Amino acid sequence: GDSVTQMEGPVTLSEEAFLTINCTYTATGYPSLFWYVQYPGEGLQLLLKATKADDKGSNKGFEATYRKETTSFHLEKGSVQVSDSAVYFCALSDLTGGYQKVTFGTGTKLQVIP
Amino acid sequence: EAGVTQFPSHSVIEKGQTVTLRCDPISGHDNLYWYRRVMGKEIKFLLHFVKESKQDESGMPNNRFLAERTGGTYSTLKVQPAELEDSGVYFCASSQGWANSPLHFGNGTRLTVT
């Protein structure tokens, strides 16, 4: 079945540091890929997505590129802020029986210190 | 538009008791999903409704869990009797009827079984 593997946290960075959170996936079909974020006390929010190979999703300074050859979708940000502290989930969506099914990774907690 | 709402936001119950979680999807969304995150692990799929019908309930852990979606509107997830391992955050998500429409998540219900 489908699965998503992402780097374990927590990740602690100083403000303005460069962020990379690795994510790889296995899927039987041709999935769409996502990063979701959960800020403290809030629900899951879609951060960015990519629907086909070589697509780059971007939002709020975060980027991730759909790499089919390496089955990866690593999340990057050039300069993190304290407000980026959250849990980040990599996910894929595949069509099963005509309906999409989303599979998540374990989440990576990011803490940014001033 | 109003987002996906879940309540309660927190529930603390004793082992053996019953708890019912509720999810109100975005109006007009045919698809409704339940997911669960046990502490530190991945967000796992529980089940998927299309309107009032269960499309996929392959993720339901056991028969102590019962989900319903009366009239294709709100959904409830009942756990009876609750066990310690049921503790976690239960997320609900909804989406429109077309394939690959984005999932909109609620804030989740944090369930603690003591």
Characterization of the model:
The complex is a heterodimer of chains A (114) and B (114). Chain A has strands at residues 3-6, 11-14, 19-21, 23-26, 32-38, 44-50, 56-59, 62-65, 75-77, 86-96, 99-104, 108-113. Chain A is an all-beta fold and 114 residues long. In chain A, the strands form three sheets. In chain A, strands 2, 5, 6, 10, 11 and 12 form a six-stranded mixed beta sheet that branches. In chain A, strand 7 (56-59) and strand 8 (62-65) form a beta hairpin. Chain A is globular and about 45 Å long. Chain B has 114 residues and is mainly β. Chain B is 0% helix and 49% strand. In chain B, the strands form two sheets. In chain B, strands 2, 4, 5, 6, 9, 10 and 11 form a seven-stranded mixed beta sheet that branches. Chain B is globular. The mean pLDDT of chain B is 93. The interface between A and B is medium-sized, with 27 and 27 residues.
Main sheet: strands, sense, barrel of chain A? 6 strands, mixed
**Regarding quaternary structure, how should these chains be classified?**
heterodimer
What's the β-strand tally of chain B? Answer: 11
- The secondary-structure element order of chain A is EEEEEEEEEEEE
How would you classify the helix and strand content of chain A by structural class? Answer: mainly beta
Q: Please, how many helices of chain B? A: 0
Order of helices and strands of chain B: EEEEEEEEEEE
Number of helices of chain A: 0
Ranges of chain B where pLDDT stays below 50 over 5 or more residues in a row are: none
Query: Helicity level of chain B, as a percent range?
Result: under 10%
* Radius of gyration of CA atoms of chain B, rounded to a whole number: 13 Å
